[in-house]
Structures are given as C-alpha cells and as structure tokens.
Amino acid sequence: MTTITRRKLNDGSYRGETIDLREVLNDILGAARENAWTIETMEGSVPGLYSLTRPCFQPRHAFYLSTGLHGDEPAGPLAVLELLRLNRWPPDADLWLCPCLNPSGFPLNRRENASGMDLNRDYRHLKSPETRAHAGWLQRQPPFDISLCLHEDWESNGFYVYELNPDNRPSFAEKIIQAAAGVCPVDMSPVIEDRPAQNGVIRPHVNPSDRPQWPEAVYLITHKTRQSYTLEAPSDFPLPVRVAALAAAVQAVLSAL
Ligand SMILES: [Zn+2]
Predict the structure, then answer these.
(1) How many CB atoms lie under 10 A from the CB of residue 39?
(2) CA-CA distance, 246 to 52, in Å (whole number)?
(3) How many angstroms is it from 59 CA to the middle of ligand 1?
(4) Distance 26 CA to ligand 1 centre (A)
(5) Which of 79, 141, 195, 235 is the right S-S partner for 152, CB 3.0 to 4.6 Å?
(6) For residue 250, which phi and psi values (nearest 5 degrees)?
C-alpha cells in the first residue's frame, strides 16, 4: 500500500488535471495503428466515438475494455493510451476496446455529455446518440468473456471496483485491487457509494428488470457478458497515479486470463 495522500482539490466536483481529448484520441489512434488494431468510427452522428478491435489467431478469450463515459474522468483514456503503447496483450485473446464513450463531455470537463445527460444511466432506454451508437456497435459484436469499464470517482478516498459476476465464476476483483494497491491507495471502507464493500470490492445484487436506469455494466451483463468489472480510480489523487493504477489493474486481469 502506498502513502500518497489526497490533494483535497476536488470540492463539489472534479477539480484536477484535464486532458485535451482531441490530442489524446490522436495518440490513441496512432498507437493502435502502429500495433495493427482495426479502427472504426461507430455509426451515428457523434464525432470521436471509436472502436478498436484486434482479433488473434487462435482465440481462447474475448476481452472488452471501455472508458471515457464520464467527461470529468481523464485517467481512463490515458490508461488506454498507456496500455496501447505498452502493447502487452495476451496472444490468445480477441480484444475490443472503446477508448472514449463521451467525446463531447471532455472539452467541458463534465460528467455528462454536452446535452447534460449522464450516459452511464442511459443504457436501458438509449436516449442519447452516444449510447445508441455504442449499443448498436455492441450488438454487432460477439459475446465477451469479461468486460472492464474504467471510471474515476472524485469523492473517493481510494481505488475500488464493482463486480457483476452472477454465475460466480472465479473472480478477478482481488487481482484488480492488489494491482491497483501497488500504485494507489485502496478505499477500505465497509460502505462505498451507499453499498456494502469489502477490501475495495463492491458486489451489487443487480436485477436489471428492477432498475429504471442502466449503467453500461448492466447493459453488458444483460446482453454481452457474464462477468463485468467497473474500476473506479480516486480522482483526488494526482493524475499519473490514477492512470498507473487503472493500467496496472487491467494488466493484472489480462495476465490472469
Ligand atoms: Zn464514471
């Protein structure tokens, strides 16, 4: 466990470093091109919504990673950039990657999209052009063994993760927390975001039909996968720490596949 402390910059909202999304996306696409990823723009009227895919020769795993759904959470797209540059992916995994799902929110440093919608509540009714384009793209993909969604929490005292694992498959949650703890404090509170938590892991009991609003993870667990993790880096810590924590956590999952 590290001894980095909160900066106490965040006050009512995220007040830390911001990114130039256009620049970061250019770097992401450049790194993807160099390493033979297929880059596509998602159908619809949203500029900046990309998917990156990379099939392998003899796939044993199908791995999905998304981020950038909240425009005030810059560590996710930067972690994707770092992972693409590192280029250490399992040789037997097909890969699907969405590097930024809310391109209009980042220039405003705002959780919601430019029209004020929290996209991570819009995956049941798909009212926004972003979630419609994303869900349309998801529907054309095969199922995933595992999905990871990278987020940040401006209020949190440390890293934590939500696990949706209805079939009780071998969990990746402890590996995620262990990897993040090497770089960043973990939120050890027994209650996080009003839900019971244990050692930085929240395991919500989710019945999608009871939920009027769906985050991306509930859409994924309903339509695409049986194992989903939402990683939350604490955004009151320095940006490079959060990027390193998210990237380390993703790599821990990849190497445990
Ligand atoms: Zn978020």
Answers:
(1) 14
(2) 19
(3) 30
(4) 22
(5) 235
(6) -65, -45
Q: What is this structure's pTM?
A: 0.97
- Strand bridging mode 38-41 / 50-54: antiparallel
In this prediction, residue 237 carries a pLDDT of 96
Angle (CA) 81-87-181 rounded to 5° is 70
In the chain, what is the greatest distance between 2 CA atoms, to the nearest angstrom?
Answer: 49
Q: Residue 256 is which amino acid?
A: A
3-state SS class at 196: strand
Q: Return the structure tokens found at 135.
A: 């869900």
Distance 58 CA to ligand 1 centre (A): 34
Tokens, residue 74? 């810059």
**What's the CA-to-centroid distance between 230 and ligand 1, angstroms?**
9
Residue where the block lists tokens 């993790």: 229
- The per-residue pLDDT for range 208-223, each reduced to its tens digit, is 999 999 999 999 999 9
